[in-house]
Amino acid sequence: MEQRRIFEQVFTTESAIAAFVFLVVLCALAYSLIRRRARAGATPSPHAERQRLETVYVVVLVGIAAFLVVYTASANDREHPGGESHAAGRGVEAAHPVTVDVTAFQWCWKFSHPAPGPSRAGEATTTANCRDGRLPTLVVPTGRTVRLKITSQDVIHSLWVPALRYKMDAFPDHTNSFTLKIDKEGKWIGRCAEFCGNRHHSMDFWLKAVSPDEYEEWVQQHQGAAPTPEAST
Amino acid sequence: MTLAPDAARSTGASRSVRPRSWLGWAISTDHKRIGLLTMGTAVVLLFLMGILALLMRSQLAQPEQQVFSPDLYNQLFSIHGSGMIYMVMTPFAIGLGVYLVPLQVGAPAIAMPRTTLFGYWLYALGAVLMLTGFAMPTGAHADGWFSYPPMASSVYTPGNGTPLWIVGVFAATVGSLGMGWAVLWTALRKRARGMTMLRLPIFTWSMIASTLMVIGAFPSLLAALTLLAIGRVEPSVFDSNVWNIGYQHLFWFYGHPVVYVMFFPYLGAVGEVLAVFSRRRFFGYKGTVISLLVFAALSMSVWGHHMFATGQATNDYYSLTSIALLVPAGIEYFALVGTVLGGQLVFTTPMLFALAFIPQFLIGGLSGIMVGTPVIDYHVTDSYFVVAHLHYVLFAGSAFGLFAAVYFWWPKVTGFLLDERLGRVHFVLLVIGTNLTFLPMFWLGQFGMPRRVATYPEWAGFGALNLVSSIGAAFLAAGMIAFAMNIQVSFRRRPKAPADPWQGHSLEWATASPPPRYNFTPHLPLPPITSNAPLLDARTRQGQGRA
Ligand code: HEM
Ligand SMILES: [Cu+2]
Ligand SMILES: [Cu+2]
Asked: Domain boundary residue among A79, A100, A120?
């Protein structure tokens, strides 16, 4: 849940800065509304400019911008240590992640877990049709780095797990990938975030994290079996 | 008295077109008539697109509602968004420039009047074509205002709605380009004697920056639309990722600058209103001029921030340029707030709208820095957070600037006054409605509601916030009814407006309301142009003379 941690950190910082700026402007406005009313006997200021003040202010603005650029770029690099279109997750084991091939289509998802080794014989696949609550489940092991390779069969979709605070688009004729690592067992909703037609609003799936042992078992159970439209809620 | 050389021509009052003939309006090359046609068309469409929004809000008020089929809902949000951007906020901004810039620079006419007129008719034609989609058996365009391929190709969206949308948006954009050229050329080449660049009113400067972006960025939309049109004839084009992602680059190279085309003119209008009703000179004029130009230049380099989640953009670079925008934006806020801080405030209706613009647009701007931050944007992009952000910018910000402009210049343009009481009702309802409607959307996005969904399931827990938002929409509807009534009452009662009802600063207030065909005449001569607020200077001199 590296993405979520980084998101919370940066979002909190920027919200605090935003709230501060908003309050300053609000106070200035409130002061003007009360003290600078014509009826309160204010007289207009003769100054058309305050160049010294403005220069200092611009320097401060540049400073804030520079801080934000460096701060947010470093957060982004922490989230994607291997470059933008992958990563998050570190260490030796990140080199041998569990891989899942995600295929989006109008209007549902297919998740394939290739077995280790060159042949795709031992692949475990799940899918569904996303109708009437029949959602497919993306099963991943906890504590291990999982690499999702995302593509699409038709139009652009986007894989979004709000609980992870992360999404990535699924393009036809192109594969994106990112890695994630989930530290506790659980089940979270995932959705399609890129408009893809009439059933875009119900193109959901479940992300389920289970212990590594359970995961092995799950893969063996589903190996070779034809993709089953899995009913689950 | 300085008088623009060709202003002398205007004595021939007989040259003006007969006022009551509709043809006189349709083919007049008077920039004031073209400007009014443009703004009038845009306001009618604003009401229409607002009604589409109310229909959407009625469907979203509760979970799992099916007032409209998903297909119809998709048409609603697509035409609402496209209409508001291509046919309302952009043309109104440019139309305001067509009307005001010649007056503000002391010119008798606009440069290239026929191009301007042609531009208007292209825009009107484009709007009609886009809306004709609703009369097609397969319905109107349903792929959103940016219509990504391959979704918008003829394979996934067959029917005539999308072709009509392509042609309509293309026509309107060519029209905007033509009008934009004319406005820019007028500001640069048609200035009266004594009107130096640094004496141009802040509104005219905002139009210069906007039209520079129009010229730099709008052709890229034409290219994107052409690509889409080719792909509809030959869909295999979009089998290749290159063209799909290429379309996004072409589109957003236009799509970000246009956001500022829909912002600067309203900011300029707000600046004028704030200065006039603070009874002082606009504060920080030079800084604002520079910041507008820097802003316009930077805006051409940020487009990729709409593509952070594509996995195919250089996110750190686009984030850098996006965040850098806070510097010019901050300078503009310094000027707005500074003007008010040292003012002597008079609370007319235009002033109320201009004052509300400041904090409300700020919410849009601050949330804009957030969505410009990749690690935040991955989560919130394509969610209701973005819907909240863009409506704070465009509605709580720009549309409030639009209303400030309407209330401010209405007496000048029509010669009648608007009712202040109805104006205040309009204002209060709009402030309540805007924040009730759009504030909850930030949380909806955070909690996981994607944008462009025709409905949402009960278990998602989005019901309460959506209900609040829809109740807010009802306030907005009531406010807009008050606005419509105000216009109607003004036309019926025709309370006579003086030439300068507000103690204005810039040249348009020196001539009659409404201004004569060639703006200034020997009886209504140009005053001496001494600064960016010549009428304020004149009043100050008079005051000193009396003392
Ligand atoms: C100047 C005024 C406005 C502008 C410029 C504007 C612009 C937009 C744009 C660009 C979109 C996105 C369309 C798309 O996803 O392709 C949109 C969507 C939407 N707007 Fe507006 N809008 C305005 C006023 C309003 C008002 C007053 C309301 C509410 C009463 C409203 C409610 C909505 C809703 C519900 C959506 C659909 C969100 C979705 O399904 O993703 N808008 N608007
Ligand atoms: Cu999808
Ligand atoms: Cu979708």
From this structure: A79
